[in-house]
Every structure is written in C-alpha cells, then in structure tokens.
Amino acid sequence: MQFVYYCTQKIGGFAPSPQITGQITGVSQNLDWSFQAGLDRKKHEARDDDPKSPSPQKSIMMTTPTRRAIPILLLAVFTAISAAVTAQADENRRVVVELFTSQGCSSCPPADALLRELSERDDVVALALHVDYWDYIGWKDSFASPDFTARQKAYAYASGKRMVYTPQMVIGGQHQVIGTKEMKVADLIATHRAQPPEVVLAVTRKDGQLRISAQAPRPVEGPLIVQVVRYMPDATVEVRRGENAGLRLPYSNIVTDWDVEGKWDTAAPLAMELPIEGENPVVVLLQHAGHGPIAAVAELK
pTM for this one? Predict the structure, then answer.
C-alpha cells in the first residue's frame, strides 16, 4: 500500500485567464458498386472434387455495371483511403501529458520522475509546466511562469473544480489526476490512444520556418486553438531553500514558451507558416476551445 501526500492549503480566489469569465473561489496549492457476379447453379454447378465438372471461372456470368457503379466505386475508393489514413493516424496517435509541478513542492519529485519516464515513450508527448504559486514558501522556481499557473487554473475552471494542486497531470487536455498515480496515468493514456483521431496534423521545420498543416476527415465541433510549445529537454536544479532544500533535482521536457497562434474552424484545411528560432524541440497542439480535449499533437525534436 502506498500513501500519497500532497498539500491542500487554501488561499483566496484567483482571477482566471483572460479567456475565462467567472470566478473560482478557492485554490489548493501543491498539490452498390453494382457489379454482379452470377453462377447458374442448376446448369453449371462446379465441384472441386469432380474433374468433369465445368471450371468455376467458365460458369461465372458478369453483368454490365449500372449507372450507379462509378460514383459508388469512387466512394469505395475514398472510404478505403480514408480508412488507411485513419489507421496510420491511429498507429501514430500520441497523447499529451501535462504535469503541473514546482521545485518548491516536496511531493513533486516522484511525479517529475514519472514524467521523465513518459517522455521516453513514443506514444506520449510529455510536458512539464512549472507553476509559481509555491514561490512564497522560500524557494523561487527557476522555471515557473504565471502563464502556466493560469493554464492550470483554466483547466480547473473548465472541469468545474475550485482547487488546483501540485503535482497534477492533465491527460489529453481532458482528464486530471494526481501526478504520482502511475497506474491511473497509464490507464488514461491507453484510453486516449484508443480514441479515433479527430484531425490529421503535419508539422515541418525548415529554414527558420515552421509549417503547420491539418485537415479534418469528419466534421469537428467548434474551432480548434492552434498552439506552439517550446521546451528544454532536461535540466538539473540544486534547491537551496524551501521544502526541497539540499536536493539536486532532475527535470525533463521543461516548457519555456506556450503561444496561441490562432483558431482553425476545420471547415477547410489548415495551412500556417510561422518563424521559428532555436534548436529546442517544438510541439504543436490543436485543442478544443475553452481548455477542452486536445484533438491532435505533433512534435519535432
């Protein structure tokens, strides 16, 4: 039996991100192809065990395709291609795992280690977002940003919750779980991988330009928010004060920038080109508005 500890200290209300209206009153820190083939069975029944029986190939009678044949054939071909694309997308489907963490949180190192393991998986895009609401207890997180705190609060608001905590993982932009619950995280990743992809996303980087293209095989409800994320693959921090004082803590996939680049209504294919600098990995997310589920993700390392 494993006991998991995380703080639930209450503080006053906070102001949600600009995209959010309303108020969260409390925060818990830390924590037919109609082509027919016929066979006259009375006159031409063929038997495999009778050498005198007429050949099945000679007894097959083919009718002329009807007028519906060509459009239905085209539909069948289109369906087959779509199925192949979907199958390929399913095979390559990746799940975004966001960890909200802090260098000043004594419960976070096990979750940071779990994220490091997840970052090595081909079916996961692991992202560490360091929040700043633990900075007041003695150690200022060197990777923290109020923007990441605002993102976590926006997730709380979207799901009807009144608290945020560390360590917290958000799976696929949809499911929230304590960041040390390894089996629960694994189950949620498997659940998201089993879902059919909503859109097909492709991203390339060349000559200082990031090219983003996407299309929706089926109608998608509402616009998708196009987001570009940069992260630092790894770093180690010596914490000198606070709850983790004296520890040398390794971190992985530390988010440094999270930019919203626009909205895509999915009615027409998406084609976008943006300037990109530096060699750090790039992640492109297409996420339902209001901090909803993540429809697609692509990563360039």
Answer: 0.74
